Automatic annotation (TrEMBL):
Domain Thiamine pyrophosphate enzyme N-terminal TPP-binding: 9-122
Gene3D superfamilies attached to this UniProt entry: 3.40.50.970, TPP-binding domain (3.40.50.1220)
Alphabetic keyword roster: Magnesium, Manganese, Metal-binding, Thiamine pyrophosphate, Transferase
GO molecular function, one term: thiamine pyrophosphate binding
The protein's name in its UniProt record: 2-succinyl-5-enolpyruvyl-6-hydroxy-3-cyclohexene-1-carboxylic-acid synthase
Superkingdom of the source species: Bacteria
UniProt KW Magnesium keyword: yes
GO BP of this protein: menaquinone biosynthetic process
Pfam families the UniProt entry points to: TPP_enzyme_N (PF02776)
Length: 572
């Protein structure tokens, strides 16, 4: 019999899949749903020790003897406090103790709820991981619970061994029990030795896939391009890059040109059966499409930190190694097997990408700038609209590109760029920035600015991203520029000249063209090129690009009709 309570089901399922059999139980009521689930399951070995302090030390001794994780399980409130001494002992001695602490709904804390204290992170620095599992009410809760329980279990033996706490909330003690439960998604972490010892298994898995999507996030300069090309040849793969991936190869594609406004129904025709992520933050909004529940695929993450990062709700494997090591290992001795079907599907779609007639705008200005930036230069874009447009217009130049992705703050783009330019004064360095980001951090221009610094400032007198996204909600006397887009009439001229920075300006295609020639070829002093554009025109050009590249397929109409029928018939 298994509890019908979802977070208990997830916990039991993952304990079994991670082969954690031994559970030391102390009497109580809050943990009844878990206790009855494991005491009626022959997989588990259960033990009873009445007081929690002794139960936890008993578990420590058992774990030391068998060199495997052992759980302790108790009711809520001060019962869990009695585990503290054994938790400290387990931490000091590298014992794999799993502290399963039953709890009540967190919203009831300090609300005159009986038998409830703050149990979250109660063991502090004496556990290698502590997670708090909510009452599971929907698919997002289920994803969170699955990820966090896997994360805690994997920290029992991650480089060093030690205890973990899994605090789980539960209110319905009398929930019914059921005969069977779903198998929830196990996440496995592989070290380098694990990959080497099982490499043939992983090669066969890769060879069995018809659609592998390698999604490359932001990276520093690397030697990965040739290895990714080799992986492409060996397996049915597409290699997705954006500017910030800093990889360059014949068969790498930039899906960002169509995925930003691609619906889930349209994406189904292009959906992979395996996604492999490498690098840091991914700029492309394809990451949001990939998390849709309609899409069925497996996710492998390759990262030297070995962290559990599950953005698509489909992570099954984490390879704690460099991307270079992974690619070298899984391609060695494999014949060329890519039938190019998946690659050609995407290439055909991308070949249809069109650009609208680019009137004078931020889109046009950045496009013209990128044409003139020399190969191997460093390019840093401020976040959101500048990052997007730079990604849309860049060609296949071997540029070294960065942005403050992930945190996406406008506050640090200019000083981050200046630090990068200072680090290598022999390399031409270019910042593409919006006005709000620039003015936020303009104090960083006080002092010695390296001569290789080129600042390309798009000034449309407002926050372009906010103008584009929220301008449609405003009409009449109230403008988006009043608060959200922070409209202004400022320019950078006096500040640039005051700090001995060469200043150029443009407000038309003609002045942009002449200014670019000076801007690109200035190397004897830092230079700032302020390009004035109109925010409404900027928005119109971007929306025009999205509109003419919208993906519509015959299958989409069929799926839409099918969704309407299912909704009418109340079919899930």
């Amino acid at each position: 019999m298994i509890s019908s309570v979802k977070n208990v089901q997830i916990l039991v399922s993952l304990l079994k899949q991670h082969n954690i059999k031994d559970i030391v139980i102390s009497p109580g009521s809050r943990d009844f749903q878990l206790v009855h689930s494991v005491e009626t399951d022959s997989f588990f070995r259960t033990y009873t020790v009445v007081d929690e302090r002794s139960a936890a030390f008993f578990a420590n001794g058992l774990s030391m003897a068998i060199d495997k994780p052992v759980c302790v399980c108790c009711t809520s409130s001060t019962a869990s406090s009695n585990y503290m001494a054994a938790a400290k002992d387990a931490f000091a001695n590298g014992i794999q103790l799993v502290l399963l602490t039953a709890d009540r709904d967190y919203r009831r804390l300090y609300q005159m709820e009986d038998q409830m204290i703050d149990q979250v992170d109660m063991y502090g620095a004496y556990v290698r991981s502590n997670v708090d599992i909510p009452i599971v009410k929907d698919s997002d809760d289920e994803w969170y619970a699955t990820r966090k329980i896997n994360e805690a279990i994997l920290e029992l033996n991650h480089g060093v061994k030690g205890p973990v706490q899994i605090n789980y909330q539960l209110m319905d003690l009398s929930a019914p029990f059921v005969e069977t439960m779903p198998e929830y998604r196990k996440i496995t972490r592989y070290q380098e030795d694990d990959l080497l010892s099982s490499v043939e298994i992983f090669k066969q898995k890769l060879l069995s896939k018809k659609r592998i999507m390698v999604l490359c996030g932001q990276q520093e300069e690397n030697n990965l391009s040739a290895l990714l090309e080799e992986f492409f040849i060996k397996y049915n793969t597409i290699i997705i890059k954006d500017n910030y991936s800093n990889i360059h190869g014949e068969h790498f594609i930039k899906t960002v040109l169509v995925t930003e406004r691609m619906s889930v129904n349209a994406f189904i025709d292009y959906c992979p059966d395996l996604v492999i992520t490498i690098g840091k933050h991914v700029w492309s909004f394809v990451k949001y499409t990939l998390r849709d529940k309609k899409l069925k695929f497996e996710h492998w993450r390759i990262s030297e930190d070995g962290k559990i990062v599950d953005p698509f709700n489909k992570l099954t494997s984490v390879f704690q190694c460099s991307a270079e090591f992974f690619m070298e290992t899984v391609t060695a001795g494999v014949n060329s097997n890519n039938n190019l079907e998946y690659y050609n599907l995407w290439k055909t779609r991308l070949s249809k990408v069109c650009y609208p007639e680019l009137v004078y705008s931020n889109f046009y200005a950045i496009s013209e700038l990128v044409k003139k930036i020399p190969d191997s230069a460093l390019v840093h874009s401020s976040i959101l609209n500048a990052a997007r447009l730079y990604d849309f217009v860049s060609d296949d130049k071997a540029l070294l590109s960065f942005a403050n992705l992930g945190a996406d703050g406008i506050d640090g783009c200019l000083p981050t760029f200046l630090g990068q330019a200072e680090a290598d004064k022999t390399r031409p360095a270019y910042l593409i920035s919006g006005d709000l980001s620039f003015f936020y951090a303009m104090n960083s221009l006080c002092g010695d600015i390296p001569d290789n610094a080129h600042i390309f400032l798009i000034n449309n007198h407002s926050g372009s991203e906010f103008h584009t996204n929220f301008g449609k909600f405003y009409n009449g006397s109230l403008s988006v520029d009043k608060h959200i887009a922070a409209g202004h009439i400022s320019n950078a001229k006096d500040w640039a000249l005051e700090n001995n920075i060469k200043y150029i300006t443009a407000d038309s295609k003609e002045s942009l063209k002449s200014g670019l020639d000076v801007f690109i070829n200035t190397f004897d002093s830092p230079v700032l090129f302020e390009v004035f554009t109109d925010p409404d025109t900027d928005t119109s050009v971007l929306e025009s690009f999205y509109s003419i590249n919208k993906v519509i397929t015959p299958k989409m109409y069929f799926r839409k009709a099918l969704d309407i029928i299912k909704k009418h018939l109340h079919i899930k």
